[in-house]
Every structure is written in C-alpha cells, then in structure tokens.
Task: structure prediction
Amino acid sequence: MSRPHRLCLVAGEASGDLHGADLLLALRAQLPDLEVFGIGGQRLREAGMETVADAAEVATVGLLEGAGRLRALVRAYRELSRRIRQNPPDLCVLIDFPEFNLRLARRAKRAGVPVLYYIGPQVWAWRRGRVRKVARRVDRLAVVFPFEPALYAVRLPGVEFVGHPLLDCVRVTRGRADTLRLHGLDAARRTIVLLPGSRRSEIDRLLPVFLDAVRLFAASGERYQFPLALAHTVPREPVEARIRAAGLEVPVIEGDTYNLIAAAELALVSSGTATLECALLECPMVITYRVSRLTGALARLLVRGVRNIGMPNIVAGREVVPELLQGRASGAGIVAAARAILDDPARHAEIIVALREVRRRLGRGGAAGRAAAIALEILRGVP
Result:
C-alpha cells in the first residue's frame, strides 16, 4: 500500500488559520489519510493539523512589533526547516505571512519540495521586486484579488485567481434585533462595532484610540453603544482590563463577529481582513491603523503606487471609506470621520452601494476548493 501524502502548511495569522482550515477540509475530502504539520491556530488543529507553533504566538506586524515574537518565529522556522530537510513532505502550502513564508519556501525548494502559495504576498502594495523572489521559490500561486495575476504573468505562469475565501465564510445567521437582544444591547441605540485587530500588537496600539473615540461619543450625550468583537486569537482579559481602566461601557463579545457587524450602522476597524468582512456585510466603516514610527517611516519608503491601504478602497480603486493612519488615527479624528458618515444618510447609503461593487469584484465563492484542486494536481503529479 502507498504511504499517506504529507503536507507542510503555514498560516501565521488569524485569517490564515481560517482559510487554511477550509483548504485542509477540502483536501481531506479527497485524501482522508492526509498527514499535515505546520503553523496554525485552533481551526487548523480542529481540521486535523499538527501545529509546531501557534499562529497567535508568531503573528505580528512591523519591525519593532515583531521583536517581541522573534524567538517564537526563529524556533518555529528551525523546527519546520528540520522536518522539511530530514523527512521532506510531498507539498508545502503557504498562506499569506510573507516574511516568514518566503524564507521557508526557499528551504522547501532546496529540499525538492514543491510549493503552493495561497493568498500571496501583497506585491502590488509594496516591494514589487518580490515578484522575482516569488517566481524563484514558488511553483504555483493561488491569488485572491482579480488584479494580481497580471503582476506575475511574465515571471510565473502558474498563477490563478481563485476568488476571495471570505465570500464563503462571511455569513449572517440572525437578524439585527435578535443579535442585539442576545448580547443585551439596546435596539433603540445606534450601534458602532469595534474591531481593533487580531494581533496583540494591534490591540495595544489601536484599542486605546478606539476607547478615546468611545469616550468622546459618550460625552456628547447621544445614545450610542459600542460592542467590541474580539478575534479568537486575542485573549479576553487584557482587553476587558483596559476597558475597565477607562471606565467605559464596552461589552466584549466573542464568536459572533459577523452578526455584530451586520447589526451595526458603522464599524471602527483595524486595517486588514476585517475591512473586507465589513465590506461583504455592507457595513460602512472607518479604517484605522498605527505602527511604530520606524515601521511607518520604512513603509512610506517601500510602498509605491498605492494611495490606500484599506482593502475595500484598493479593490474599488478609490477611497470608498475613510482611512486614518498613524497620527491621524486619534480619538477625535475617528469621531469626526464617523460622524461624517452617521450624520449624512445619503453618504451612508452611497458607501453601501460602493461596498456591493467591491463584493462583485472579488469574484465567486469556492476559493478554498479551487486552491485545494491545485494542491491535488501537485500531489498527484499532474503537470
């Protein structure tokens, strides 16, 4: 009897854990005895993967922000490199997380292991020179934005637009009134959902700013409520401790993010995957982001030809929703941007129409299945 196929899979962030689990389930439907090891979180473990490091331990952004997790990153890289060298898997599947994954791709290629990159590096935003690096180290590339194949076409023929995986998982399971009632929220109040990020470094930088905005809204005397949708990669207690210290009423809610977004009139959201989730749920938003000064300065040097960082704006090709970055991401700045939307029903409606167009441009569902089909082609030796 032939041995089971072995797969190394790396998903170093919360969104990668989700999309990796969908991919793995699609693969297991065809290869039930598939053996998988790598980096992931709770959802990948539930899908049957052996994790040598947890996604929450290694997820980070920026140079200074990454310093605190460097030891975990190095330890994970060394362990995966050792396994790939000593007992090469049949395929290495890499999901986003480019600084780590492109290095691991080089190690895999040296060991003769084919590499499939799913949700590739955002070369369209910064460091376009990485197209050459990707082409050297990756055999197949499954991209999730319609404009990406053209960026790789000359150097990497094995690139395919598979659609965005969020189209399959962003779903509302109950109406607004039921969601508010379930969480003890007041249907008579205007609801602004807080989405401060899925990394602890993002929480550290953005949650205080969001709470400043909540304080300013509360001081106005208007009837607002601010549920915070907690990412599954973020521990609850430190978040609640910050809220208690601020003396604010902000309920922290886990496991119901999509229903909360759908029930809200507006989202205050960290730049990243959550902005696309808000877009798919047709929730107007104010996008914010803060990194260290050094990281921000380097980013300004490296980013070329991109006016926006928010994914809904990039997909739309224009600024559909406001972006507040670095020093502009203040409590007062957030309140002003939010009021410009909340106090103008016509603008609120225009944003919803624009977000529907963003959804249309993201393609059709089934991204994980199409990426799994590419992986199966490689595993079965199909050119």
Summary: Residues 137 and 198 are 29 Å apart (CA to CA). DSSP finds 19 helices and 14 strands in the chain. The mean pLDDT is 90. The radius of gyration is 21 Å.
